[in-house]
Amino acid sequence: MTAIELENISKLYRLGMYGADTLRDEVLNFFARLRGKAPVNAKIGTENRLDSVDDQFVWALKDINFSVEQGDIVGIIGKNGAGKSTLLKLLSKITAPTTGSIKIRGRIASLLEVGTGMHPELTGRENIFLNGAILGMTKNEIKRKFDDIVDFAGIAKYIETPIKRYSSGMSVRLGFAIAAFLEPEILVVDEVLAVGDAEFQKKAIGKMQDVSKGEGRTVLFVSHNMSAIKNLCKHGIVMERGSVAFNGDVLEATDYYLKKNEVVTTKGKKIIECISFCLPTFHVEKIEFNGTEYCESVVSSEQHEIKVKIEGYTDVAQKTDLMLIFKTHDGTPLTSLAEGHYKGKIDILPEGKFIYEKIVRLPKYMFNGECICDIFLHSPGVEFIIKISKSVKIIFEGSREEYGTTLKMDIHGLSGLETI
Fold first, then answer.
1. Which residues, listed in sequence order, are joined to residue 296 by a DSSP beta bridge?
2. Buried b vs exposed e over 174-183: b needs ≥16 C-beta within 10 Å?
3. How far is C-alpha 199 from the geometric centre of its chain's CA atoms?
4. CB neighbours of residue 159 within 10 Å
C-alpha cells in the first residue's frame, strides 16, 4: 500500500521583504501597485510583475513526483539548498505546496530541527504528553510509552527540568524518542541526528530499522552521511535544484550523488600534481600507477596485478613502505596494501637518484565498478614521506569468472593486499 504520494509538487517563494514595516510604506506600496511600479522595499532593479519569477521569486521545489510504499525507509540526499528540507516541511504540513497534491495515509511525526514541537518553558515530562496529544495519542497510550521514551533518550535525571535548560544533544534525543515511540505511521527525520553523539546515532538508526521492519511503519531520512543512508535505507532519492534527479536503489543513488559532487576532480590531471605533502629531503620526478601517470586508470578483468612506480631523488637514505588504500566514493575502506604495517617489510631507498617499484597482486575476486585509491609513502612509525589522497580513480571492468562471484564495491572486510 502507498503511504505517501506526491503529484506535480512545486513550491514558490518570494525573495526579499514583501510586507511593509510602517503605515507610510504600506500607503506608498498601494500607490506603487496602482501605477504598476515596484514596492518601496522590493529588490533593486526589479519590476512588479508576477510572471518575472527570476527577478522576484525562486522555485524551492519544481515538479516533484514520487511515491513511497508503506514500510519503506527512504533516504533523501542532496547538496545544501537542493530542496530537501522544503520537501519535508510540505510532507509535515508546516507549509503548503504552490501547485500539486500530496496524499498521506496515516499519522506523520516529524523531527526537522533540534527542539521541534517542544515548548522551552515546559519540562521534559510535560513535552512528552504535549507532543503525544498533538500526534493524536490518548493519555493512557502516552503513559504506556513514557518509560521507554525516557530510557531511550537517557534524560531520566532531567525529566522534570524545563527544556530550555537542556543541551542541544539532550533536546534532540528527547525529540527523536518522542517521534519514534509514539507510534506514528510515518516518521520524518532531518539531519538533526548529527547533533547526537556516535552512541545515540547508532541507537537512533537501530530504532528506525525496528520501526520499519518490525512495525511496518514508513521512514523518510535526510542526511549527508552516506554510510548511514546506505546502512539504513533500501531506496534513495537525490535532489538537485528543487527537482528529483535520481529515484531508485540506495546504492545507485549514493553513487550518483557522490560522482556528481566529487570534491576533487582529477580527470586529466597527473598523479604527481595531487601530492598534498612531501618531505623537503625527498624529490619526486615521476609517478606511475598501472602504467599511466594520470589520475584515471582502467583495470581489465584479465589483469592480475598493478605496478606502482615512483622516480626521484632523496637527500638522505630513507626507510620506506608503500601504502595503498582502496575506498568507495564515500570514503568507505575496501582493502589496502601496507606490508610494513602488516608484515614488517621495509625497503631502503639509498641517498641520491632512485626508481622505486612495487607490483601489487590484485584480490582473489575482482572488483566491478569504480573506486578511489590513496597513495602514501612513509617510514613506518616515523613519518610520512609522500601523501597523495583521493588521487587515482580506478575503473574495474568485468569480472574474473575463474575466481568466483564478482565482488561488488559495497562489500567490506577484504583481506590486505600483497606485493609480488
1. 393
2. bbbbbbbbbb
3. 19
4. 17
Rounded CA gap, 322 and 345, in Å?
A: 10
CA angle 313, 289, 339 (to 5 degrees): 75
Cα angle 101-62-219, degrees, rounded to a multiple of 5: 60
Set of cell numbers at residue 55: 527577478
Phi/psi at 88 (nearest 5 deg)? -65, -35
* Total count of residues recorded for the chain: 420
Task: Provide the strand spans (E) within 70-154.
Answer: 73-78, 99-104, 108-111
User: Could you write out the three-class secondary structure of 254-302?
Assistant: HHHHHHHCCCCCCCCCEHHHHCCEECCCEEEEEEEECCECECEEEECCC
CA distances from 201 to 90, 103, 113, 152, 400 (A): 25, 30, 15, 12, 39
Per-residue burial over 11-32, b if 16 or more Cβ lie within 10 Å, else e, is beeeeeeeebeeeebeebbeeb
Beta-strand ranges (E) seen in 105-259 are 108-111, 186-189, 218-222, 235-240, 243-249
CA 119 to chain centre: 30
The residue written with cell numbers 501597485 in the block is: 33
Of 35, 39, 34, whose CA–CA distance to 22 is shortest? 39
Where b means 16+ CB within 10 Å and e means fewer, 265-301 reads ebeeeebbebeeebbeebebeebbbbeeebbbbebee
Q: What percent of the chain has pLDDT over 70?
A: 81
Other Cβ atoms less than 10 A from the Cβ of 40: the count is 17
What residues have CB less than 8 Å from 206, skipping those under 6 apart? none
Tens of pLDDT, residues 353-362: 999 999 998 8
- This prediction's pTM: 0.60
Give dist(CA 162, CA 287) in Å, integer: 61
Q: Which three cell numbers stand for residue 108?
A: 506523520
- Summarised one tens digit per residue, pLDDT across range 61-96 is 988 998 988 888 899 998 888 888 889 888 888 888
